[in-house]
Design brief:
The structure is a single chain. By secondary structure, the chain is α/β, with parallel strands linked by helices. It has three domains: 97 residues, Immunoglobulins (Immunoglobulin-like); 361 residues, TIM Barrel, CATH 3.20.20.80; 81 residues, Sandwich (Immunoglobulin-like). The protein contains 16 helices and 26 strands. β7 and β8 form a beta hairpin. α7 packs parallel to α8. The longest helix is centred in the middle third of the chain and has 18 residues. The N and C termini lie far apart (90 Å). Bound molecules: calcium ion.
Length: 621
């Protein structure tokens, strides 16, 4: 009886997994769609002995255009999925010496019309960034999961704390009500690493959400729910490296799948060498091909099979989850030609899609080089320009300028002059409104620490909500969460109060949150909700004036409307004479301060308190 049952279970197992005699461990992408613009699809099949087998299939509209065995355990299969192919399943047979040794049922799904139809993000958006392990633990049952190497330990600042998709889903209303229209969640894919697995940047399966966050289906449900609430979802992706416990590291698909060095060689992390016209080959090679860490092998995107793998992986997630955008990690660390090819492929399939690249450099030209239509020379100093197709970048230079500006004395080129000078170099960007602007993120000092005072935090918030580009805020900034990166990344990624059962402080209900923090929360909420409905501040032409005596004035103008922003970085209350700004003020006679709704009946002189920002909607009468 037991034997019979076991046999029955075996056959059920085979049926469920869609194969017979040979055990197929991986087929990636696990399924695809009929009706994609790009007809080509390359499958990676991983099974013992599969490398010597011959694939065949018979399905109307699908052509097997080629295959290549790689080692004994990998087979790459090229398919052409024609316009005639309809959604359904077809069997791929694997033959050995003329005999079928195994088969796999492959599915072509029907494309789903998602609400936003991959329409990307833009200047109308404000992005909330959160680290899923640290935001909210909606399901304590998944804190520890079978087969996962690292166990939850909330006492360890570098350990897993249990946050998950259920927690995010539960609190989408909080994010929306604060005024955010987009959500960037740090990587969610499986990181089955023995330690430091919480941050998500050491991916061990590119097609699977980490079970401690939830399932792939949970993620898709979260995206739909979020979009239904008016909050877009941006997926964090990593192409430069994988985790050293990725399943393929035990037996690579091809020898050059990752960069091999005679001995462990770390990247020099000098991303500037890629764009440096004088850089040595030695430095560039170490930058691009060195490993990000012992635990993060460097993927070789020059290998065309890996290149296909990564491109298809991103398209799979966009299509499967209905994503609005992607944030790409360590952008300059991957092969630049591959990155351009990837961008082109994504935009071919989804022309309105947006991708924001992490180009962590402090000088504007070093960021601008990576953006679409930059027109800059390529990194070898040759006249031919590099076309990246990258739609958006994080404005790291502005982050650093802002941090310094608010914490130093104003002078010719210090204080707010730093911001003015930097923005005056925006000619390096083909469209400066593509910049995602921020005061901190999950990798750098938290703004409440770096900017020293609450006044400075509020000034930074006001600036980020009104200058060109569109803002990103890191979870916890709204309640002045503190942390210094050099005290360990765990200290800038602390648990969000209220995300765990039993938390004494709870941001979601504003329970036991100090008054000062509540004020900042309300300040940001006012700013973002105002910005959400104001096209002038989202898209208006920026005109700024040379800062004088610690005061920086700029306008956003669109059609006949205008917003005036006055930043007073000095320690004195000021009454500002406005004759200098006539070209922006002549059509207007009064204004309303959007923070406190107070009327400004006369624009000839405007008062502004020490260390504060006034945002004034101008009106003619
Ligand atoms: Ca959990």
């Amino acid at each position: 009886m037991f034997r019979t049952l076991r046999l029955l279970f075996f056959f059920i197992f085979l049926a469920v997994h869609g194969f017979t005699a040979i055990k197929i461990d991986h087929v990636e992408p696990p399924f695809w769609w009929a009706g994609m613009k790009n007809a080509n699809l390359q499958l990676l099949v991983n099974a013992e002995g599969i490398g010597k087998m011959v694939p065949s299939l018979n399905y109307p509209g699908v052509k097997l255009s080629g295959y290549k065995g790689s080692g004994s355990n990998y087979l790459f299969i090229d398919l052409e999925i024609g316009a005639m192919a309809i959604p359904g399943k077809f069997v791929i047979d694997f033959s050995n010496a003329g005999k079928i040794a195994g088969s796999y049922s492959y599915e072509l799904r029907k494309r789903e019309d998602f609400k936003g139809k991959h329409s990307g993000f833009n200047t109308s958006d404000a992005i909330y960034l959160l680290m899923p392990d640290r935001f909210s633990n909606g399901d304590p049952k998944n804190d520890n999961m079978p087969g996962m190497l690292e166990q939850a330990d909330r006492a360890n600042k570098d350990g897993r704390h249990g946050g998950d998709l259920a927690g995010i889903s539960e609190h989408l209303g909080y994010i929306r009500d604060l005024g955010f229209t987009a959500l960037w969640i740090n990587p969610l894919l499986e990181n089955n690493m023995p330690k430091y697995s919480y941050h998500g940047y050491a991916i061990t399966d590119f097609y699977k959400v980490d079970p401690r966050f939830g399932t792939n289906e949970d993620y898709v449900a979260l995206v739909k729910k979020s979009q239904g609430m008016g909050v877009k979802v941006i997926m964090d992706m990593v192409f430069n490296h994988c985790g050293s416990y990725h399943w393929w590291m035990k037996n690579l698909p091809q020898d050059d799948w990752v960069h091999q060095w005679p001995e462990f060689t770390r990247s020099n992390y000098r991303a500037g060498v890629v764009t440096d016209p004088y850089a040595s080959y030695f430095d560039k090679k170490q930058m691009l091909d060195g490993w990000f860490d012992v635990t993060m092998p460097d993927l070789n995107q020059k290998n065309p099979y890996l290149a296909n793998y990564l491109i298809q992986n991103s398209i799979w997630w966009i299509e499967y989850a209905g994503l609005d955008g992607i944030r790409m990690d360590t952008y300059p660390y991957s092969d630049p030609d591959f990155m351009a090819q990837w961008m082109k492929s994504v935009l071919f399939e989804y022309p309105d899609f947006n991708i924001v690249g992490e180009v962590w450099m402090s000088a504007a030209p070093q960021v601008g080089w990576w953006l679409h239509n930059s027109g800059m020379k390529n990194g070898n100093g040759q006249a031919k320009s590099y076309e990246s197709h990258l739609t958006n970048a994080f404005d790291f230079p502005l982050t650093f300028a802002l941090q310094q500006a608010l914490t130093e004395q104003d002078g010719w080129s210090t204080g707010l002059g730093r911001i003015y000078d930097l923005l005056s170099q925006d000619f390096v960007y083909s469209d400066p409104s593509d910049m995602v602007i921020f005061a901190d993120n999950h990798d750098i000092d938290r703004m409440a620490s770096k900017l020293k005072t609450t006044e400075n935090v509020k000034m930074a918030m006001a600036f980020l909500c009104t200058t060109r580009g569109f803002p990103l805020f890191y979870y916890g900034s709204e309640i002045l969460m503190k942390g210094w990166a050099d005290e360990g990344h765990g200290t800038i990624r602390r648990d969000f109060p209220g995300g765990w059962a039993g938390d004494t402080a709870n941001v979601f209900t504003l329970t036991n949150i100090e008054k000062e923090k509540q004020e900042v929360y309300l300040y940001l909420k006012t700013l973002l909700n105002w910005r959400k409905g104001n096209k002038t501040v989202q898209n208006g032409i920026l005109t700024h004036y040379i800062p004088e005596n610690g005061v920086y004035v700029y306008f956003r103008s669109l059609d006949r409307s205008s917003v005036m922003v006055i930043m007073n970085n000095s320690n004195e209350n000021k009454t500002l004479a406005t004759s200098r700004f006539t070209e922006n003020l002549e059509s207007f006679s009064k204004g309303i301060d959007i923070i406190n709704n107070s009327k400004i009946p006369d624009l000839k002189s405007i008062s502004v308190s020490a260390k504060s920002v006034r945002i004034i909607e101008l009106s003619a009468e």
